[in-house]
From TrEMBL:
ATP binds at G57, P58, P59, G60, T61, G62, K63, T64. It is found in: Cell membrane; Membrane. In the N-terminal section; belongs to the AAA ATPase family. Belongs to the AAA ATPase family. The gene is hflB. Homohexamer. This is ATP-dependent zinc metalloprotease FtsH. Acts as a processive, ATP-dependent zinc metallopeptidase for both cytoplasmic and membrane proteins. Plays a role in the quality control of integral membrane proteins.
Length: 273
């Protein structure tokens, strides 16, 4: 139903302080916050405010979080939908959903529209002719392009879209006046992992042998989502052992468990390749 797709207009309480690391990406989206807060400063000079930006990076690196933080900082509504929601829709449904979404967004402007997994609708047209749902996907993509072109540059609606595969996107999406800006959201380096740990350790009851420097050194290749998950796993392990505080060993056990989980996942995938 309509509600399942668009009920995510939230009173967003996420701010930039909730997004650790990603300094460059934050710097870039700050401009968007300013467009939303002070549109007149731009329009008075005759500038056209960009309609959208693409957040590009691996899963779990904070793209959704960053988009919510933009809405939070600008204090505007946040609408979201996922490209994968559109994949199995009947003919005409995807396109009408896109129309509905933009209608709602225009009514609530200024606002942010966030499209997660845009590659699910935005893959280059005419390449996957084997897939049955392809026509419908193309209809949906065409509707999205039509909507983006249709609403005025200074309508107050800014679309942020996330993908981990910018290379597969239809070039039409990347043209000036559409998603003409790309913002990289990469896996965190050690210093950034420390900052992410700081955010996610804050609500936890820790023993004083838990050292952020050490945790960051033990987690190369972890995304922000995996770090958040690790912190919670450590808390669960400590609780199961009826501890009063979470200690270093709980974190080490949680790292082992998460790495074992990741290895299992890749083993399941490998034989099919
Ligand atoms: P996907 O591509 O899988 O949708 P994503 O890039 O949108 O992932 P998020 O959904 O934003 O990732 O991140 C998931 C969770 O991981 C966040 O809600 C947050 O708890 C944590 N997280 C990820 N990145 C960061 C970060 N930079 N700072 C703090 N927390 C983070």
């Amino acid at each position: 139903s309509k509600a399942t797709l668009f009920d995510k207009e939230q009173g967003v309480k996420i701010n930039f302080k909730d997004v650790a690391g990603l300094e460059e990406a934050k710097e870039e989206v700050m401009e968007i916050v300013d467009f939303l807060k002070n549109p007149k400063r731009y329009t008075a000079l005759g500038a056209k405010i960009p309609k959208g930006a693409l957040l590009v990076g691996p899963p779990g690196t904070g793209k959704t979080l960053l988009a919510k933080a933009v809405a939070g900082e600008a204090q505007v509504p946040f609408f979201s939908l996922s490209g994968s929601d559109f994949v199995e829709m009947f003919v005409g449904v995807g396109a009408s959903r896109v129309r509905d979404l933009f209608k709602q967004a225009k009514e609530k402007a200024p606002c942010i529209v966030f499209i997660d997994e845009i590659d699910a609708i935005g893959r280059a047209r005419g390449k996957n002719a084997m897939q049955g749902s392809n026509d419908e996907r193309e209809n949906t993509l065409n509707q999205l392009l039509t909507e983006m072109d249709g609403f005025g540059t200074n309508s107050g609606v800014i679309i942020l879209a996330a993908t981990n595969r910018a290379d597969v996107l239809d070039r039409a999406l990347l043209r000036p006046g559409r998603f003409d800006r790309q913002i990289n959201v990469d896996l965190p380096e050690k210093e950034e992992r420390k900052a992410i740990f700081k955010v996610h350790l804050k609500p936890l009851k820790l023993k004083d042998n838990v050292d952020i420097e050490f945790l960051a050194s033990q987690t190369p290749g972890f995304s922000g989502a995996e770090i958040a998950n690790l912190c919670n796993e450590a808390a669960l392990i400590a609780a199961r052992k009826k501890k009063k505080e979470i200690d270093k060993q709980d974190f080490l056990d949680a790292v082992d468990r998460i790495i074992a989980g990741l290895e299992k996942k890749s083993k399941i995938i490998t034989p099919e390749e």
